[in-house]
Amino acid sequence: MADDLVTCPYNIAHTIQRRRFDNHLMKCEKQYPLMKLETCFFNTTHRIKQGEMEIHLRTCSDKAKHDAQALHIKVQTVTMTKAEIEDHKSDNEDDEEDWGKSCAMSGYDPNANIAQKNVLRTLQNATPSERKAFRKEEKERLERIRSTTAGESKPKIPGMNYA
Asked: Is 96 within the bounds of a domain?
């Protein structure tokens, strides 16, 4: 439990659980605006006085983790054989995707689809004269659709009274 506690760099009287330390640092940073501390590049919970940053960066415990990860990545790239590199290059060249080629059909057009249905449409962002003309055309369109569907028999539900 004692290893789980961390001392606040803004006020040494503050001891906080490690899991809550990030939140505490944000609060203390606001509470102590005159205390200018720099943030470590390797660990954001490391707050260091302005003059001591260079020393901290040389001795930071998280720098070793960062360097080890960077070294691991470098070793992986160096150990690739020339054949693997050539194979990787050729894979990337052929990997250009064109989603339009694979689709032979045209896309879905909601306006064309709804133009055939008995649904009242609205016109957005138009002038009053454009809206008036659209409403007139919409009224005619709906009358045409209703007149063609009036002759068709609608499915009847047994027991329902249709008057």
From this structure: no
